[in-house]
Every structure is written in structure tokens, then in C-alpha cells.
Amino acid sequence: MTARLWTLAVRFGPWLVAVLILAQVLPALDARDLWYSDEVRYAEAYSNLIGQGKWAVLELNGAVYPDKPPVYFLLLAAIHFLTGLEVTQTLFLGSAVSAILLAGAMARLGAVVGLTAEERLAGLLTWIGGLGVMLLLHYVRMDLLFVAFMLLGQAFLHDHVINRKPAGAALAGFACLGLAVLTKGPLGAAIPLVALVATALWAGEGRRLASGAMALGVLVMLAVLGLWVAAVIGVEGWAFFAEQIIGQQVVARAVDTFHHSEPVYYYIVVLPFLILPWTGFATALPLRQALSQRRRLADRRRARHPVDMLGLGALAGFVLLSSLDGKVGVYLLPVLCLLHMVLGAALMQSSLRSGRVASALLAALLAVALAVFGTPYAAEAGATWATILGTLLLLAMAATLVVPATPGPRVLALGGIGTLLGLVLATGLLPILSGYASPRPLAERLMAEAAQGAAPMTYRTYSGVFTYYAGRDLPEYADADSLLQAITAPGPAVIVTPRKHWEGLALDGFDVLEERGILGGRGDYLIVRERP
């Protein structure tokens, strides 16, 4: 019976993964509020796009928002047009649609490098069961769509350069890279191209990187980018494009990022956590065997083994990301996708008993951590069921890794357990954090005071994280002089501000109405109101 299920699953592999993604996302579209700070900023920018047509250069709190290109937000607009969902639901469904597109891109890349259908499905099933991907699936970010375009472009380019497919593959690949850049920025082209160079040199196809088709493909990518560049310059002018887009969003983020600046070893520390519970499979790496077979290296290069192609691509991307000044854990997503495809191939080819046992121990450890540390918060929120189910599912995952089973049914069971765990996460565990991570309570209290005649404003904080739930733009003051001038206007002022900055002002005549911490917000926030 299990063998028949596995055969059926392989036949409809990408469709099965799409169903598993939707099964855990659709019931949770209204499960929680949007969080600080990406989710609420994206919601506001998207609202301005569909409400005011601000798509070429996004708008946030009444000002231009050049941080992000428009493709992700245009996808959200298309979802809204097709479904009629409200903003929050559209954003969460956008994550599901992006994840489905990414799963398809992973399957395509796996196919062109030579993975079997069984290996591709195994990789996708471990992918949706990994902790890092599971969390991202239930969070509002554009990275899933970003990496989908990247890997699809990489697949087309690999097909042209290494599999010697016609020029159309190169043109399609560079068009996808152009869309990736218009989703989140230049890394959308840089990471796939670095991976392509590494694999092409390994396979002895370096000369094909300089073919006429590749040059024409670059022109196609530039043409895709040029459509947006022309729109930006038409709306905001050349000076804005040169200073804000090229200077601040491209150059500064690569070489001098104060906000996310991390040491070169940052991703070495982060990667093992993002790939949990599969981190234990590192114990099964055949390092000794690889070192003993150095003399057979030339034969292996000629064989163009799929694991080599994917592993080299992951390594090249990892090195590139580590060399940049700005580092965030989610930037490793393209590397994670390739590693999961490698893991899927390995699981179908060998027992990996030591890796399965180690990963089972990690899953059991996660279960204990959830039960011990999550239960008090869940009980307070009336969601103890979520920690109980989550703990049981993690233990079931651990058991599935170690009980005797054939590889296919084992990974199919792991994918099913991962889907149920994602559903519990989205509907029970993550909503517990809304009271700690969402700026909604502060924004709504601010607007309640505004309804009574107070003038709402922010001090020394980014107004854009409050405007979506406030339902209006908020004046933002970055220094004491401008704030003092604002509060001299007739009528009382009501201000949301980080406590550490408010205490430095030592202003009299204000009452603290509310104090609340925001997870990720670097300290407590106050709402203060001027006395009549």
C-alpha cells in the first residue's frame, strides 16, 4: 500500500507539493495580525499600490519607498484581482503562491541537472518539512518569489550551457533573472550566475559561458530591467534613480550595510539552525570517502553527477553571500533549496542511518524545547493544544526517521508530518506571538486618541510600521527640535516613540497612556499624550 502511494506521489510530485502548501496556508489566512516590521510595511506599500496605483516606485507613509522593486507587489495585486481577498489574506496567500512557484523551479532545476523524479520529490518533501522554510512559508516576505525566479533562471541557463540546449534556454534564463532582480535586487542575478560559472567550469563547459546566446541573454535581462528603470525615471527623475536605487539600494547594501552588517562567518553559524531538523544529516557526509577518491576526480567531473552540480551551486552561493557586508538568515534560501535537493537525492540513494538518527535526536530535542518553553505562552493564550500537537508531531517525525522503512514512503510520511506541523504552527503557535510582534495595538490606540481630537505623530521611529493599522499617514520627527515645534501647534499631541528616546527628552506635560514591547523592535514603545 505504501509503495503504491509513493508511486502515485511521484507521478504527481509538484502538484502534491502544491496541495501540501495550500493545506497549511489556506486555513490560516486570518489566523494572526501582521508583524513588525516587514509584514506591516509590505501591507502598507501594497495598499498604496492597489489604492493609488503607486507601482513604479512604491510609497510608504506618504513618501517614496525605493527599498523594493515592484514585481512581488504586482503578484499580490494579481492575487487580489482574482480572489477579492482583503489585504492580510492576500499577503499570506501570496506566500503560498510564491512557495508553489519556488517548488516548481526547484523541480525544474533538479530535472535539468539529472535528478530522478523520486529524488526531486524527496527533496521537495524535506524542503517543506525544514524549520527555516516552514517559518518562511507562514511569513510575509518576497524571498520565496525571489528565489523562484532565481532557480528557474539557473535551470534554463544550466540547460543551455551544460546540457547544450538551444539558445532559447539562455534567453528564457536571463529573462527570469531580470524578473528576480525586479523582485528584490541584484542578488537575483548574481547568485544564479555565480552558481552557473562554478558548475560550468567543473563540467568543462566554461567556453559556453561566453557564447553569443549568453550575450544576447544578457541583453534580454537588461531589457526586462529597462522597463522598470524607464518607469522610475519617468516618475521620479534620473537623479532619484542614480542616488536612491543605484547608490543606496545597490552599492551601499553590498559594501556598507549598517543595519544588517555581520561578520564573514555569520552564515556558518546560522545555516545549521535554518535546516533543522535535517542538520543531523551532516554526520553522514562521506568526507573520508571523498578524500580517498581524489584520483577519480576527473571521472566524476565527466559524469556531471547531479549532487555535484547542486552542491557546487550551493557552495558558490554561500561564498558570495558570506562575502557581502549585509547578511540576514533568509538570504540563505537559495542555498537551502539546493541543499534540500541534495538531501532528497541522498535519501533515495543510500540508508544514511547515522544522519537519520542524528536528525531524529534533533527533532526530539525540538519537541522537548517546544513543550517546555512554549507551553506557558500557549496556556496564557488559550492555545495549549498547539504545543501538545506540535510536540507530538515532532516526536512522530523523529520516530519516522528511525523506524525501518523504504526511502520513498519514509520521505512521504515526513512530508505529511511536516505539513501538519506547519498547519499547527500557522493556526496555533504563531498567533500567540501577535501580541508581542505586531504594532497593531499601538497603532489602534494612537488612532483612538486621534478620534478624540489629538494630533498623532511618531518620534525617532519609522512611521511606516504603524501606518497600515493606523489607516493614515503619520508625521514623523527624527529630532527634538522638529518635535518641539510640532507640539506647539493647537490641540494636544499623541506620540508613539521608543521609550529610550522619550526618556532622553525629559518633556513635561505628557502622560504615558501605554507601554508595550514589540518583538524585533529593539525595546519598549510608549504612547504619550499631551495634557490639555
Keywords:
D-Maltodextrin-Binding Protein, domain 2; two-stranded antiparallel sheet
Describe this structure in words.
The protein has 532 residues and is an alpha/beta fold. It has three domains: 31-349, no CATH class; 353-435; 439-530, 3-Layer(aba) Sandwich (D-Maltodextrin-Binding Protein, domain 2), CATH 3.40.190. Helix content is 66%, strand content 6%. The protein has helices at residues 2-11, 13-25, 38-52, 71-83, 87-113, 117-128, 131-137, 143-161, 167-184, 187-202, 212-236, 238-255, 266-274, 287-292, 297-303, 306-323, 333-349, 353-380, 384-402, 407-429, 434-437, 440-451, 467-470, 480-487, 499-503, and strands at residues 58-60, 63-65, 455-459, 476-477, 493-498, 510-517, 524-530. Helix 6 packs parallel to helix 20 (407-429). Its EC number is 2.4.2.43. One of its GO terms (cellular component) is plasma membrane.
